[in-house]
Amino acid sequence: MSKPVIITCAPTGGIHTPTMSPHLPVTPDEIAAASVEAAEAGAAIIHLHARDPETGRPDPRPELFLDFMPKIKEACDAVLNVSTGGGLGMTREERLRAAVATSPEMASLNVGSLNFGIFPMLRKHSDWKHDWEPAFLEMTRDFVFKNTFADLEYVVKELGHGHGTRFEFECYDLGHLYNLAWLIDQGWIEPPFFVQMVFGVLGGVGADLDNLQHMHTVAGRLFGDDYEWSVLAAGRHQMPFATQAAMLGGNLRVGMEDSLFIGPGELTTSNADQVRKIRGVVEALGHEVATPAQARERLGLKGADHVTF
């Protein structure tokens, strides 16, 4: 029997802007409510970003995270995973502020630099709620999302060694798997490794099934039995790729960070709806959905009683 499928939900992220959906969680209360609802729907892990509650712009301030993380922790048992990707254009130190302040069980770590282009979304809107939105998107036409080897070493030692935080290693391309293997070879991280394969971001690996199969094969060769793997895909590819991951015995991520839609041309009204939809697919395939306790055990997490929020 295959292992229960770990569902991660990323309720807001740092990519989509408020104009794109009236349902995007922005305020701390909205992020908390969306996270709890997603956990109740079946998400074992909640991947968290914060936003300025007035403008919706991605915001690294720890006080914003500390406004919603305790509320989520009190209301559910989900693993809280703090982003170190932050918002595009933030410095390395800004991106780490919330994770350092909260010492979470898990944090994301982007394991390679890439051109990260979200400027094509400019074509879909002309009337913007906030002045920062079109400038933020346009900026990515000439932008490199920087994650050098020095950055990776810094984050692993600061959070992993300093706080006992485990990582969701986000791999946007084949080479990122080899970057992760390099980190392992240095002896800086220990198994089990949680590898999140990311598809469909302009600048990263395309959302083609052959790419998923190849990255899965290479990861298996590099990491053997020492890793858990998961898949997320941007936009319209979200549900098909999540389904493929479940069919191949992997784990998966959904949420409004990755897609604002529940079906073709239909905005999702909540993150929980996306979780419920993919949970139905997973269970229809004959798989179980992992509980937070099962996720903690499989990923070797330190437990919710060893955080600082």
Automatic annotation (TrEMBL):
Superkingdom in the source lineage: Bacteria
Cofactor: Zn(2+)
Keywords: Metal-binding, Transferase, Zinc
InterPro entries from the UniProt entry: Aldolase_TIM, BKACE
GO molecular function: 3-keto-5-aminohexanoate cleavage activity; metal ion binding
PANTHER family: 3-KETO-5-AMINOHEXANOATE CLEAVAGE ENZYME, 3-KETO-5-AMINOHEXANOATE CLEAVAGE ENZYME-RELATED
Descriptive protein name: 3-keto-5-aminohexanoate cleavage protein
Originating species: Sphaerimonospora thailandensis
Taxonomic lineage of the native organism: Bacteria, Bacillati, Actinomycetota, Actinomycetes, Streptosporangiales
